[in-house]
Specification:
The protein is mainly alpha-helical. The protein has one domain. About 65% of the residues lie in helices and about 5% in strands. The protein contains 3 helices and 2 strands; from the N terminus they run E-E-H-H-H. A two-stranded antiparallel sheet has the order 1-2. Helix 1 packs antiparallel against helix 2.
Length: about 130
């Protein structure tokens, strides 16, 4: 017995008539998000280059968030997580989100430590 997949995205805001149309819709969404990332990387607006309270520039936070949005949507749509039970969806989606948040936390603290070691002169800048 074949399982029918939903032909809608964004919680039913866009509905498609066929799988081909849905694939094109998802491709367009992912292309737009990627284009925003590339444009921000090329333009680098000044107001996004100021440091935030968490130690990273706002532009870097935007890149991390947009990358997570793309990863979530790829898993949600192409891996058909939308059609699974909610417990499995939560286990698959929330685990990487917490892992990425933890890795970003480690990255920020370790980078700050290394910067302070070089700044205070314990190790010389040789690059």
């Amino acid at each position: 017995m074949a399982h029918e997949h939903k032909l809608e995205i964004f919680r039913g805001l866009l509905k498609f008539k066929s799988n081909t149309q849905k694939i094109w819709g998802v491709l367009i969404f992912l292309t737009i998000v990627t284009a925003i990332e590339v444009a921000l990387g090329i333009i680098k607006p000044e107001f996004l280059l100021k440091s935030t309270p968490l130690g990273m520039k706002a532009l870097n936070w935007i890149f991390i968030i947009l990358t997570l949005v793309k990863a979530y949507y790829i898993a949600w749509d192409f891996m058909h997580l939308r059609d699974e039970r909610s417990a499995l969806r939560r286990a698959i989606v929330w685990t990487p989100i917490f892992l990425v948040a933890y890795l970003v936390f480690i990255l920020l603290f370790e980078a700050d430590y290394v910067y302070n070691v070089y700044k205070d002169g314990f190790v010389t800048w040789n690059f």
